[in-house]
Write a structure and sequence with these properties.
The chain has 16 helices and 10 strands. By secondary structure, the chain is of the alpha+beta class. The strands form 3 sheets. The chain has a 5-stranded antiparallel β-sheet with strand order 1-3-4-5-2, with helices on one face.
Length: 410
């Protein structure tokens, strides 16, 4: 394939030591034939030193700019690795690969997920990758109009953290910490009565106090995060599924997401696409339990001072003399009382309440969009196309990298 932009020699850089103007793309059929011949030759010959060098590039040129430049000149990627590329998915080891020929030899440009690779001819002029990349960038102006046309076909996506997934991960990590504390297996310290009991009490009490105090901290954290986690789920649904007329009206959209959480849930079918039915907020037990949990959120999240909410004991006084209704022990007054409104059981219950609410809301969505939404909410990194107002999953959840081996036996 020829350079589809044409040579435009008048605008060419004066020092074309990399023969950039004479680059020609190689038909992939020719590349396959060459690889086959090289393998047959290698099978009947002694190993020889590789005739190509390789640069790994992460700076010096933006990958998108290099791709646009090469596509403007040569059309679609023509490298041999494109044979195995899945063109219906972004889950590929090598995303694009160009092979070009010039008087110096063949040059390959490969884009992996974490780097560019440039395979260059084993000739002295290819000594500095930065100089080579600079020479390419100096040729951008010559093909600027063609590059502009290529850019028009690109979609610009922003990659952002999914708030729902991040909170889910945090809460589940904290719940695992709670389980690892194994509070049920701890030895309970008994109130000491003898000198010997005092010595053993200290060790048992200290360990129990540390674990119970840690459990209270974690449980309170989970309980404070659970309402926020629930809101992030509802807000993500609105963000991903909002009707075009809602999304395009900024004031209307912002008004919806600022409504009380129960009002947002009740109206999901009104301002979102894909809902087969409305959420029966006043009928379903899952919603009633969620509403009860949310009613207590202000005391937790805003640190409200309400003795009725955090009372853990009651007694009488006659002047300076305490008159107990019932006795407590060291353990209760030192650390067990801290579990009030912040017990592991309450934390797990709040977690389950949010899970149940999400499950019931998802049941109101039509089958096909529900499958897509489930994948969306369970993906950490999401993409947002501002121009088209679209949210999507850009990459798989796993990361893979590899490298080709260059050497005397390659």
């Amino acid at each position: 394939m020829q350079d589809i932009c044409g040579p435009a020699m008048l605008d060419a850089p004066k020092d074309d030591k990399y023969h950039i103007l004479s680059w020609q793309s190689i038909p992939i059929t020719s590349i396959i034939e060459k690889v086959t011949r090289d393998r047959e030759t290698a099978a009947h010959s002694a190993p020889r030193q590789a005739s190509q060098g390789r640069w790994e590039v992460t700076t010096g040129i933006r990958p998108v700019d290099l791709y646009v430049y090469l596509k403007a000149r040569f059309g679609e990627p023509n490298g041999i690795t494109m044979i195995s590329k899945n063109h219906d998915d972004s889950d590929n080891l090598i995303h694009w690969h160009y092979s070009v020929e010039c008087g110096l030899g063949s040059i390959d440009f490969l884009c992996w997920s974490f780097r560019l690779e440039i395979w260059y001819p084993g000739v002295p002029v290819f000594a500095d990758p930065n100089d080579f990349l600079l020479a390419i960038k100096q040729d951008f102006q010559r093909v600027a109009s063609s590059m502009k046309e290529v850019r028009k076909g690109l979609e610009r996506w922003k990659v952002f953290l999914n708030p729902y997934f991040r909170l889910k991960t945090m809460i589940e990590s904290q719940l695992q910490e709670l389980e690892d504390l194994k509070l049920g297996d701890l030895e309970e310290p008994s109130q000491p009565r003898t000198e010997e009991e005092v010595e053993s009490f200290r060790e048992v009490f200290s360990k129990a106090a540390i674990n119970f105090s840690k459990a209270a901290q974690i449980s309170l954290g989970v309980r404070m995060l659970a309402p926020v986690w629930a809101e992030s789920f509802v807000n993500l649904l609105i963000f991903a599924m909002a009707r075009p007329e809602v999304r395009s009206d900024k004031r209307l959209y912002e008004g919806i997401v600022r409504q009380n959480i129960d009002v947002r849930i009740r109206g999901l079918h009104l301002y979102c696409t894909g809902f087969a039915s409305h959420v029966k907020y006043d009928e379903w037990d899952a919603c009633k339990r969620f509403h009860t949990m949310m009613n207590g959120r202000n005391d937790l999240l805003h640190g409200n001072v309400d003795p009725e909410f955090t009372t853990f004991d009651e007694l009488f006084f006659e002047k300076k003399t305490p008159l107990f209704i019932e006795f407590k022990d060291f353990s209760f007054l030192s650390y067990k009382a801290s579990l009030l409104k912040a017990s592991p059981e309450q934390a797990l219950e709040d977690y389950q309440i949010v899970q149940d609410l999400a499950s019931h809301v998802l049941l109101c969505i039509e089958n096909k969009p529900r499958e897509e939404i489930v994948r969306l909410v369970l993906t950490r990194d999401l993409g947002w196309d501002e121009n088209r107002q679209r949210v999507g999953i850009l990459f798989p959840s796993h990361m893979v990298d590899a490298a080709f081996s260059f050497g005397s036996s390659s």
